[in-house]
Design goal:
The structure is a single chain. The chain has 462 residues and is α/β, with parallel strands linked by helices. It folds into 3 domains: 210 residues, FAD/NAD(P)-binding domain (3-Layer(bba) Sandwich), CATH 3.50.50.60; 112 residues, FAD/NAD(P)-binding domain; 113 residues, FAD/NAD-linked reductase, C-terminal dimerisation domain (Enolase-like, domain 1, 2-Layer Sandwich). Helix content is 32%, strand content 25%. The chain has 14 helices and 22 strands. Strands 1, 2, 3, 4, 5, 6 and 17 form a 7-stranded mixed beta sheet that branches. Strands 8-15-9-10-11 form a 5-stranded parallel beta sheet. Strand 18 and strand 19 form a beta hairpin. Helix 3 packs antiparallel against helix 4.
């Protein structure tokens, strides 16, 4: 038995950040992880490996479609799927070993195994029980299930199985038009798969700006992806050489079928708390199955806290990291804080989609007067030179005060560009503040400045 100031259960982005920050602040810290490597879902079977495949297949797209236009005659590229998967695995290894190095550097003990909480202040791993003044649950999430669709991670897969398919499927059906489904669908569409996305709602990426969603769907269709919207999946039957998927259109209740080599179930995620013993401990849950916490991440059990995907809020790695950072500071006697109004969301397709703050839909629903500044990447010199002129930047500002309320970008490096707006919003910036800030030329960031100018007298290059 060992005694700690803090034991963190789970080494994903929220957990490892919480552990490292707490150790930096002088606490004696351990982190429990049952995987063979640190980093949780994100580093092992989520954010990092999927971005590796997105990067590799984007390079393939560039070679197939744009190299010749630039005078680069390299012939038709060949895909070595095994080598691509090996590259992906190498990226995973570099990142997970990086977290292990940071644990050693900051003197965070890695307790290997799966944890349970038999009593307040106690964490059991295997046959050993450890003591801790504070326990943080950072166990993340798992893929949500769907009635009638049985996952085997071979022909019917979640995002985990989609990262290691034995071969590139000729036909893939993606159930769910959200971030994960569109990112992985994009990977396989670039690799030559015929990809069809089935979404229950009448639009993709629900919760995002409606104009962005329409533009995004149009651009993905141009890349070869097909969409069936307003459809409820009834089941997936595994046959000898294919999967037969049945769905009903909500508008007329008519039933249809689709054949596929692979079905990707991407209908969202749910908190993963299996084996922790929360019921016996008496930890309160929300109606949605999340762990209920107060504003300081404390559960109803003294000394037990929770962060990340296990609690309410967007299931984003950086949201979990911010919470882990804030909670570590709270436990060390400081004033940890997370501004939930300024948490960006990114879809790492090409073009990328990024958003922060309010949408036009949410502002209209709230009855708030606002103005829109919009600029197309077609007016950006760098974007045109790089065959990346699809999309636009949209900034939403208060009609009277000009204070930035939100921003939505679809275009090149949107996930990087959005952070200028995030910083501005953190400091209560007006659109004019962005507009009057010098931006280097030629850069994609000029499109953000032009959109800010459009909130005032008008963009210069539109």
């Amino acid at each position: 038995m060992a005694s700690y100031d803090l034991i963190v259960i789970g080494s994903g982005p929220g957990g490892y950040v919480c552990a490292i920050r707490a150790a930096q602040l002088g606490l004696k810290v351990a982190c429990v992880e049952g995987r063979k490597t640190l980093g949780g879902t994100c580093l092992n079977v989520g954010c990092i490996p999927s971005k590796a495949l997105l990067h590799a297949t984007h390079q393939l797209h560039e070679a197939e479609h744009n190299f010749e236009k630039m005078g680069l005659g390299v012939g038709k590229p060949k895909v070595d799927w095994k080598a691509m998967l090996a590259y992906k695995d190498d990226v995973i290894g570099q990142n997970t070993k990086g977290v292990e190095f940071l644990f050693k550097k900051n003197k965070v003990d890695w307790i290997k195994g799966w944890a349970s909480i038999p009593a307040p202040g106690k964490v059991k791993v295997g046959k050993d029980t450890h003591e801790a003044k504070h326990i943080v649950i950072a166990t993340g999430s798992e893929s949500a299930s769907l009635k009638g669709v049985e996952v085997d991670e071979k022909t019917v897969v979640t995002s985990t199985g989609a990262l290691e398919l034995g071969k590139i499927p000729k036909k893939m059906v993606v159930i769910g038009g959200g971030v994960i489904g569109l990112e992985m669908g994009s990977v396989y569409a670039r690799l030559g798969s015929q990809v069809t996305v089935i979404e229950y709602l009448d639009r993709i990426i629900p919760g995002n700006d409606g104009e962005v969603a329409k533009t995004f769907q149009r651009l993905l269709k141009r890349q070869g992806m097909e969409f069936i919207l307003g459809a409820a999946v009834q089941g997936a039957e595994k046959l000898k050489t294919k999967v037969k998927l049945t769905y009903k259109l909500r508008k007329d209740d008519s039933e249809h079928t689709l054949d596929a080599d692979t079905v990707l179930l991407a209908t969202g995620r749910r908190p993963y708390t299996e084996g922790l013993g929360l019921d016996a401990l008496g930890v309160e849950l929300t109606k949605g199955g999340q762990i209920a916490t107060d504003k300081r991440y404390a559960t109803n059990i003294e000394g037990v806290y929770a962060i990340g995907d296990a609690i309410d809020g967007p299931m984003l790695a950086h949201k979990a990291m911010d919470e882990g950072h804030a909670l570590a500071e709270i436990l060390a006697g400081q004033a940890g804080h997370v501004n939930y109004g300024v948490i960006p969301g990114v879809i790492y397709t090409h073009p990328e989609v990024a958003s922060v703050g309010e949408t036009e839909e949410s502002l209209k629903e709230a009855g708030r007067a606002y103005k829109v500044g919009k600029f197309s990447f077609m007016g950006n010199g760098r974007a045109k030179a790089n065959f990346a002129a699809d999309g636009f930047v949209k900034i939403l500002a208060d009609k009277e005060t000009d204070r930035i309320l939100g921003a939505h970008i679809i275009g090149p490096y949107a996930g990087d560009l959005i952070h200028e707006i995030c910083v501005g919003m953190e400091f209560g910036a007006a659109a004019e503040d962005i507009a009057r800030t010098c931006h280097a030329h030629p850069t994609y960031s000029e499109a953000v400045r032009e959109a800010a100018l459009a909130c005032g007298d008008g963009a210069l290059h539109a």
